[in-house]
Write a structure and sequence with these properties.
The complex is a heterodimer of chains A (278) and B (247). In chain A, the strands form three sheets. Chain A has a five-stranded antiparallel β-sheet. Chain A is 31% helix and 12% strand. Chain A is α+β, with helices and mostly antiparallel strands and 278 residues long. Chain B is an alpha+beta fold and 247 residues long. Helices cover 33% and strands 18% of the residues of chain B. In chain B, the strands form four sheets. Chain B has a five-stranded antiparallel β-sheet with strand order 3-5-4-11-8. In chain B, strand 9 and strand 10 form a beta hairpin. In chain B, helix 6 packs across helix 7. Chain B is globular and about 60 Å long. Chain B starts with 10 loop residues before the first strand and ends in an 11-residue tail after the last helix. In chain B, 48% of the residues are buried. The chains are: A alpha+beta (278), B alpha+beta (247). Chains A and B meet through helix 6, helix 7, helix 8 and helix 9 of A and helix 5, helix 6 and helix 7 of B.
């Protein structure tokens, strides 16, 4: 990882003023950022949601690395493009180390050209903008902890599949949710994931929904999906159902007669057989 | 079927005397282009959530799951037509999603409507040899898929309403140029009620798909900002401000 991200406790920093990064084209160095419960569903529109497993347990993250995320996150001059930016990015150059602990700062991320903010006010207390960052970091820490606890259930339920590790961060073990593995659950197992106001399902749904932004082939050992009555026909990039897949399963066009013209029962039976064949 | 009547203007049993007419893609038909919302099934929720807020309307006392496609009522405020994501029922259109009565009577229903703006050369429903064309078969299969999915969708929706898990989702926006929009007929999952113990039984009954769908419905609501951008652009006639769906 780049030395841009050498964090040290703010108390040890000699900086009197700080500024936000002017550019965000270091996302590949960052690769993943922790997220809070309150931003999980919104962020799933812009970044794949994964679960990083570390020594302290799982951590729900937004996947930002361009080897994994096919979404367009940066615009001209390295500006963040999506309408929502995660707390972890908005708080830079600071990061939190716990709900109550004081932040750390990566001094190299401070922009020389950007607006400068005082770390401390005249009263020795955190300056207004720094105080706001501290509050956001605490919110992130609390929300991230709540997500981590819910993610432990998904881990225990064995419904995660691993991503191939990044060359730049081979030690990072990141997982996404597998719908195929989830579908094996009994009714009671499925119901057990409704704990904490359905949060495990919110992580699972955010992960599954955001996998459209995950680069193809990023997932290791993808389980074979079982037929499901709930799964709609696959959509192509233009949101059109890929109807040619099942058009080909008809050996002969259906013959129409002169009376009722079309038997849905026969059609359903024929469709079921076609499904079985496929 | 409750909530589906606005989708079909002239539902007609397919007959040999007119079955050789051509059918076109859904957006070739004026009333489909003007839809503010369209009924959907749970199985397509994840795909549609990237573009549309998913919500319910109560029709004849029953909740009907919908994709909210525009905030405007005059056919404006949609995603641009070529890339507009469509619910499966509209991909099947003008072949109608069969209701139980149509299935029982073995009828194929077609919305026999004039396409005022054909976007393609169309395809016949029946070929000269009286067989259905491949295009018509594909749409009929989609329509049947939706009909199958609706059984689960409607059962889950009813249990959500009866269990008190839905709440009103009032929408009130000032679009500029003196235009405002007010919707007070929509409902969504009540986040504050997801901690109730009854949720366990609901998901135990309906399975993993129910738990996932509750969350998918909630994340879809963030697309209201895209619809708002489209509506404002339509009102102020600023096409550059039009928003593309988040794919």
């Amino acid at each position: 990882m780049s030395n841009l991200f050498e964090f040290r406790p703010v108390a040890q920093s000699t900086l009197r003023r700080w500024s936000r990064p002017a550019r965000f084209d270091f996302l590949d160095d960052l690769a993943f950022v922790p997220i809070a419960d309150t931003e999980l569903l919104h962020l799933s529109h812009y970044a794949p949601i994964g679960i990083r497993l570390g020594r302290h347990g799982p951590e729900v993250v937004a996947i930002l690395h361009s080897e994994l995320n096919i979404g367009r996150l940066l615009g001209k001059e390295g500006r963040w493009l999506p309408p929502y930016a995660p707390y972890a990015l908005r708080c830079l150059p600071f990061r939190g180390v716990g709900p109550e602990a004081m932040p750390e700062i990566a001094e190299a991320l401070c922009s020389a050209e950007g607006e400068q903010f005082p770390l401390l006010g005249e009263d020795g207390q955190p300056g207004k903008d720094y105080a706001y960052v501290i509050e956001m970091l605490r919110r992130l820490a609390r929300g991230s902890l709540r997500l981590a606890n819910a993610a432990k259930l998904l881990l225990a339920a064995d419904c995660l599949v691993a991503l191939y590790p990044l060359e730049s961060q081979p030690e990072a073990m990141v997982y996404v949710v597998s719908e195929t593995l989830l579908q094996r659950f009994s009714g009671a197992q499925a119901a057990a994931l409704t704990t904490d106001s359905n949060l495990p399902y919110e992580i699972a749904a955010a992960s599954l929904f955001s996998q459209r932004l995950l680069r193809r082939g990023a997932v290791q050992d993808l389980p074979t999906p079982a037929p499901s009555r709930m799964v709609a026909p696959a959509m192509d990039q233009g949101h059109r159902p890929m109807i040619q897949d099942f058009q080909g399963s008809f050996e002969e066009p259906l013959m129409m007669d002169d009376s009722t013209l079309f038997s849905i029962d026969d059609f359903l039976e024929f469709s079921d057989k076609a499904d079985e064949r496929s | 079927m409750q909530g589906w009547t606005e989708l079909y203007e002239n539902p007609t049993v397919l007959g040999a005397e007119w079955g050789y007419e051509r059918i076109y893609s859904a957006l070739s038909y004026a009333h489909i282009r003007a839809l503010r919302q369209a009924p959907i099934m749970v199985g397509e929720a994840r795909t549609l959530a990237a573009a549309y807020p998913l919500c319910w309307r109560i029709v004849d006392g029953l909740p009907v799951l919908q994709a909210l496609m525009s905030l405007l009522g005059d056919g404006k405020g949609h995603y641009p037509a070529p890339n507009r994501p469509l619910p499966l029922a509209l991909h099947a259109y003008p072949i109608a999603v069969p209701d139980p009565e149509s299935v029982a009577n073995q009828r194929l229903i077609i919305d026999r409507v004039f396409p005022d703006a054909p976007s393609d050369i169309g395809a016949p429903i029946l070929l000269e040899n009286a067989k259905m064309s491949k295009g018509a078969i594909a749409r009929a299969r989609l329509a049947v898929s939706v009909a199958r999915g609706l059984q689960f969708t409607n059962a889950l929706s009813r249990d959500l309403l009866d269990g008190g898990f839905l709440e009103p989702w009032p929408l009130k926006f000032d679009l500029g140029a003196g235009v405002s929009v007010l919707r007070d007929d929509l409902m969504v999952v009540a986040a504050a009620r997801l901690g109730r113990p009854e949720l366990f039984g609901l998901v135990e009954t309906h399975g993993v798909d129910a738990g996932l769908f509750l969350a998918t419905q909630r994340l879809s609501l963030f697309r209201i900002s895209a619809l708002l951008g489209l509506a404002k652009a339509a009102v102020t006639q600023a096409p550059d401000a039009a928003t593309e769906p988040a794919l």
